[in-house]
Amino acid sequence: MTSIQPSAPAPAGVPHRVHRKDLQDLRGLSRRPFLSFLQKQAQPLVPRSREEAATPVQYPKLAAFMSQRVWKWISEYWRFRIGPKHPFPSYDGSDTGIHRMPGDEIRIALAGDWGTGTDEAALVADRIADFEPHYSIHLGDVYYVGDPAEVRANFLGVANPGTQYAPCKWPEGSVGTFALNGNHEMYARGYGYFDLILPAMGLRGGGGQPASYFCLENDHWRIIALDTGYNSIGLPVLENIVTPDCRLPPPLIDWLREKVQPRADDARGIVLLSHHQYYSRFDDCFPKPAQQLAEFFSRPVLWLWGHEHRLAIYHEAGMPGGIRAFGRCIGHGGMPVDLPSAKRHDYTVEFADARVYPNDENLHIGFNGFVQMTLHGNALHLAYVDLNGARVFDEAWAVRNGALTRVHAAAMQAK
User: Does the reported pTM lie above 0.85?
Assistant: First the structure.
């Protein structure tokens, strides 16, 4: 594994904008719904001063146990978490969810785990806008639990009247804007995502994104976005004991089989997008979606995912019964970024960003960022860019007769 380190003293960092949320309140956020609802209550409703933010709270979750917050925690958990999930929408009629990408050069901005409302998320949004993408795609997770107020404030740019924080808006693409479903959206049973986010997404002037999965394609590439979030929650309480497998819902499998119809003789390259990782050196693995996809893909694919809050580039790998994939973890859009620390050793990392991000909250974390994807004919270029606009890793691919070949890769000496 290679990583990059600063070759000179770190820059002074991003000026603290007290009107946005602090990264410190999102540290160690649980992937258990009950605890995510708890940590949400610990966030102050009024932004900290610069001096207060410079001294991170040592035990932030304990603030949730103040009497007035405990009852709010319980009532919000009961209101948003208890009950049936939002129905899973599918495509019908003339809309197949397959969109032709026009033009010779196509720019796509990709970020995961962006929906935090922090200074850093706002800076990533600015860098995405600088890229002037034709399409922007969020790989999922709006925090803490994806309820309607959080969705509006942390993703759609609508201020929450219950706090004094400025909202953040996901940057739009000139042709289309899309969002995948994550586990945190589902902690509020998906209603904020399906009823508020999706109607605001989709092709420009097209009336929204009808479902949580879609395909962008041209003569050389198919970019297929999947929903691993819908089945990332189970029954309340039981889901804290047995981790759901994030399997792809049956309507999505039917869509792949009947509408997308991947064929062995299709010479286009396949890029998959999802929220959850297939495999990981640092965290849990979710092999079930890859096993379901084995029906459709016999050649290795390029697969970009989020969920883990880091940037990591993997060598080709797979799991028994699953497809082969070149995995790229890009869940570093807005959450406090975890620095590389291996949990397992069965998947090889080619590159991970190990730089320490200088911040005025004095947190030991990594850099936030996103991915610039550019398509030109049979060539695909991926630039991994941090919130300051610096490239940290660069790679180029070509597709020939359906087979992916990487023609260039380089780690940059970003500071």
Answer: yes
